[in-house]
Amino acid sequence: MKKLFLRCCLVSLLVFAFCILMNLLGLFRFLEYKSYDGRMARTAGLFKADENIAVVIIDQDSLDWAKENLGWSWPWPRSSYGDMVRFFNMGNANCVAFDMMYTEPSVYGKEDDESFASANREFGRTALAVHFVEDDPDNVQAVFPIPELRDSAGMLSSVVSAKDFDTVVRRNRYGFVFDGKFFPQLGTAPLIASGDATSEELRQKIESGETVNLRFTKSLNDYIPYSAMQILQSYAAAVSGGADGESGEDEDLLSPEDFEDMTVFVGVYAPGLFDICSTPVSQMYPGMGVHVSLLDTLRNGNQIKNANTPLTTSVLTAVMAFLGAAFIMLVSVVKKRSAAFVLTAMGFVLPLVLYVGICYALFAWGIWIALVAPVAAFILSFASSTAAGYFSEGRQKKYIKTAFSQYLSPIVIDELVADPAKLKLGGERKQITCYFSDVQGFTSISEGLDPAELTAFLNEYTSEMSDVITNSGGTIDKYEGDAIIAFWNAPTDQEDHALRAVEAAIRCQERLEEMQEQLVKISRKSVKQRIGLNTGYAVVGNMGSRMRFNYTMLGDSVNLAARLEGQNKSFGTYTMCSAETKNAAVEHGTKLKFRELARLQVVGKKEAVTVFEPMSPSVFAKREGELETFAKALKEFYGANFAKAKELFQSIASSDAAAKNYLEKCTEFIVTPPDADWDGRWIATSK
């Protein structure tokens, strides 16, 4: 546990340092902003639009109505805006803010501008837009309304929003200081008009570098937009109705009193006329909506507080990095493999879900904490600790194999006693049948056993398998942990060595099944072994150094047997032999049955070899129908008729692992057919 804890601390420290460096270099900034946008979009529905904010839009319907009934083309006469101001003045609105620029005199004449200016002076709380051009920070330019309107406005307000580096508007300013004068933002001007803030207070926030992290609703339509047509019609009705402001029988018309103490934003919303910007809730958000959101955020205290500071981010990143490593440390002490797998999955998913959930919950409450750096730290720490664990397990297995490789085959010892002259280095080339076996999931088994239990398990298993091999005349080359390597036809000659080897392999599988109960008592797991067999020429003899050597085998045929043992995984089988072994065994009269598995091209070989699965006659009889279907399907597969082969393999895939794996291969080849000169081979991608 002490070593595990130290490893946990080391991994988490390295990951923490890496993630903090990435964060300081700004490499997480883009992803963090996108996570911010995701949080904003998914929590926007939790907030209602301020009912004291009204939005008046000059939409396409208003433009069509004005052209048809009043003969107005765009731009409208400015007297129309004056009428809107007069209407809201009749209702004693708090403020009317125009998100429109009036930089040129009206095309309808000076009297038109004066009509709008007169209404502004009468109302006294009209906010008109000023645009500041910041292309050159040392030479900021201001674009003001024409003098008549500029002098009539209750307030001149900035409409320049604060954009982040990716051009998304997530925050806004309190205002703008230009030429020593303060200009409130279009969204903060209504606060000054209502007395909820002063120009000096807002100016101090600007000079301290403060901005407002906006809280957006789902869309600008949440503010129940009124059309300009409806306002102008209501004004006309209110004027004609007399002092009481009766607006007639038309239910679409409004009373000025409906806007008492309300803040009204007026802007263009017709296609091609209004400005758009990118926000967390939409990439095409009306620019006026940013100013509306600023007022709503400040008035209702919904500002997003930035807790994504270097200190808090470092603390959260450190905690998540440690948790990622700590979960693997805790799982590594669990001996039961299935439980360890479940805990590993839960240890990865649950902390991530919990942390992301906390980030979203805090955001809904108005607090923004870092998401990307801590999550990256957790994932990297978890992955690094897992890799370190597997490396440690690999070293353990290597140690076990090294320890067991010190033992010599008893048959070789007998040969040396009979002929001491053989106790020297040297070898000969001869045909042999090679045998490689390995216990499936041995790492998992070894993890759940203490040294005494592991020794007992290996001794029990290797003793029984070795007895079967040696009783058939085989030579044990070596033990490598759970692996047994053997061969036949050396040092003594055996004409039927292929038959002996393949029948010994089947007997080993049967003996393993017979001893399952006693092995499970030790390992607490079901035990399976994979066996690979090949017949061919190899060099056999004493090899090593002058002081220490072993009677062993070398050659391509040996390597192929080793590859076939591993390739059982590709077909879901447990015993596999080459065509050379099968043919030689049949020639010498074996009663075993064989099913052709594949034309297999193993790693390191250019040519494919036909491989078979040997089985006892009784097993073959039980599976005869299934095996016949497999043979038909394999023939279609060799002929590149993948659709037909898939159909046949699918019919037996539930009971035959090899068919299930071929089903996946057929599906792959249907989507991505092999080359035209493909000869039916299965290309192994691993040893």
What does it look like?
The longest helix is centred in the middle third of the chain and has 33 residues, at 372-404. Helix 5 links the parallel strand 2 (95-98) and strand 3 (126-133). The two termini are 34 Å apart. With 687 residues, the chain is an alpha/beta fold. The chain has 24 helices and 24 strands.
Summarize the structure.
This protein is α/β, with parallel strands linked by helices and 687 residues long.
Distance between the termini: 34 Å
Rounded mean pLDDT is: 88
Number of strands: 24
Oligomer status: single chain
* Shape, principal axes of CA atoms: elongated
pLDDT below 50 for ≥5 consecutive residues: which ranges?
242-249, 399-409
Query: Which structural class fits the helix and strand makeup?
Result: alpha/beta
> What is the alpha-carbon Rg in Å?
41 Å
Beta-strand content: 15-25%
Number of helices: 24
Helix share of residues? 40-55%
State the major sheet: 9 strands, mixed
Q: Could you name the key traits of this structure?
A:
alpha/beta, elongated
Layout of strands and helices, then pairs:
Blueprint: H1 2-24, H2 29-43, E1 53-58, H3 60-70, H4 79-90, E2 95-98, H5 110-123, E3 126-133, E4 141-143, H6 147-152, E5 155-158, E6 171-172, E7 175-178, E8 181-184, H7 189-194, H8 199-207, E9 212-213, E10 226-227, H9 228-240, E11 263-268, E12 276-279, E13 282-286, H10 287-299, E14 305-306, H11 310-332, H12 337-364, E15 367-368, H13 372-404, H14 410-418, E16 426-439, H15 442-447, H16 451-471, E17 475-480, E18 483-488, H17 497-514, H18 516-523, E19 529-544, E20 549-554, H19 556-571, E21 575-578, H20 579-587, E22 593-601, E23 609-615, H21 617-622, H22 624-638, H23 642-652, H24 657-671, E24 681-683
Parallel strand pairs: 1-10, 1-11, 2-3, 2-11, 3-5, 14-15, 19-21, 22-24
Antiparallel strand pairs: 3-4, 6-9, 7-8, 12-13, 16-18, 16-19, 17-18, 19-20, 21-23, 22-23
